[in-house]
Amino acid sequence: MAEYGYYSTGESFSVADPDEAWIMEIIGKGKSIKVDMKMLKSYPAEVRKVIKKLDGKTYFTDADFTKALTEVAGEPFAKQHGEALIQTLQKGEKGGVWVARMIPDGMVSGHANQARITTFPLDNNKSSLSSKNLGDIFNKGITTVYAADVISFARSRGLVKEGVKDEEFSFSDTYAPVEFGAARFSEIRVWSMFNKVNSGMKQYWDYVKGDIKHDARTGYASNRMPLWIQPERKVSPRDMMDFMRDHLENTELDMSKDFGAGPFGNPYRWRPLTFKVDGVEYLNERATATQQTGFSFISQMRSWLPREIGGIHWFSVDDAASAVYFPMYTSSTATPKLWSAGFGSMMEFNGDAAFWVFNQVSNLAYTRYNVIHPEIRQKIDQYEMGYLKNTAEVDAKAQALYKTNPEAAVKYLTDFSCKTGDDLARDWKAFYGHLFTRFMDGNIKQKDGNNRNPKVSQPGYGEEWNRRLIKETGDKLKYHGSSH
């Protein structure tokens, strides 16, 4: 990972070099709360008398311990003493349990803040290894590696049902079971990408909406999506960029279509993800494109080129649906100034910083999305298509330099990447000025030849929204007298 770089979403890691791509999922072993009276000598006698009923028992979560304490001592006692007892009795366990699987050639995979590895082949010293034999990891044909105690540890914690064989063991279903929120907020994002490259994904639609079926014997989810699928067409870097821009379009959950989208089809919902009305809990969809994205990137690795030239991070900041991915060659030894860490911060506005420039554009779009965003999308296409075309020329020039002077090639790619990034940030700042001028105050302005003042159109809210408004307000807004 130190050599090629890695990307983490918390529960899963994607690790790749020019020839292989792996998904690794790791979960810390956590802690145990073992009731040991010797550790409670400093507690009052009346507290120790109650706790003695649990002496020698072990709990693996705060909730389990609190439940047991409530059962023997009552809720007031548990509320008063539970947290302090947990702090005294808990013991962390070092290490983690993990599984790593190589994505087969010709397949695509994905993960979105939810572990997805289920069953896996056990150690056979041919295609699969446990950590006991980690020295053989570079042997040809190895496609699965896992912690030697990944199954036994789960059994020791009571996480595996009786009768489940080792070869049936599911990592995700055991350590990170998919519940409604995990499916609706996480798995649905993977489905959105899969659905764009494979026509057979409709069979998993109910699952990603949160309707999870379970096997009665194992307790595992039985209608999950596969870890990887075969795309029906070649996937390009531009495809990858657009996968990041999805709002569940062309599905029944299309975020631009329901009442929450407002009069201008805004496919975003402000947090929190869930809310209650009259005690009933509801949700806001969590699509791939989201307003609070800090940065995102597409890593392109081209094994046929020298290492210094073959890697490109297509990088962007803020909401991917309103941002441009520009090429940062991975051998670059510097960062574009306007994209650098410390050039502004979350609470320090800097009007030149790429982060703030792109946020200004996207947040303007949120005010009248179906009016403003099409113009942004047109600009995105113009830049990204130009970059994709331009990198072929950059590759060729870098290769020519590399033959005689690899350091000169790296400097050339660094200069190109930094200039491209900073030019984009400056251009996007000017673009924001154009958009603000054109769309401010709820109208649309168009330059009118050499006239000082523009042509102005007033599109209003649209027929559908006007009808909704009148349905709700009745005659309150009715105009009396001659109409205009």
Describe this structure in words.
The chain has 484 residues and is an alpha+beta fold. The chain has three domains: 6-29 and 95-235, no CATH class; 31-92, no CATH class; 295-442, no CATH class. It has 13 helices and 18 strands. The chain has helices at residues 45-51, 62-73, 75-89, 150-156, 171-175, 180-197, 205-209, 237-243, 307-310, 354-367, 369-404, 406-439, 463-473, and strands at residues 6-8, 12-16, 21-28, 31-34, 58-59, 90-92, 96-102, 108-109, 128-130, 144-146, 228-229, 274-277, 280-283, 295-301, 311-317, 326-329, 444-446, 455-457. The strands form six sheets. It has a six-stranded mixed beta sheet with strand order 1-2-3-7-10-9, with no helix packed on it. The protein has a three-stranded antiparallel beta sheet with strand order 5-4-6. Helix 2 packs across helix 3 and helix 11 (369-404) runs antiparallel to helix 12. The longest helix is centred in the last third of the chain and has 36 residues, at 369-404. The chain is globular. The model is unreliable at 1-11 (pLDDT under 50).
Indicate the topology.
Elements: E1 6-8, E2 12-16, E3 21-28, E4 31-34, H1 45-51, E5 58-59, H2 62-73, H3 75-89, E6 90-92, E7 96-102, E8 108-109, E9 128-130, E10 144-146, H4 150-156, H5 171-175, H6 180-197, H7 205-209, E11 228-229, H8 237-243, E12 274-277, E13 280-283, E14 295-301, H9 307-310, E15 311-317, E16 326-329, H10 354-367, H11 369-404, H12 406-439, E17 444-446, E18 455-457, H13 463-473
Parallel strand pairs: 9-10
Antiparallel strand pairs: 1-2, 2-3, 3-7, 4-5, 4-6, 7-10, 8-11, 12-13, 14-15, 15-16, 17-18
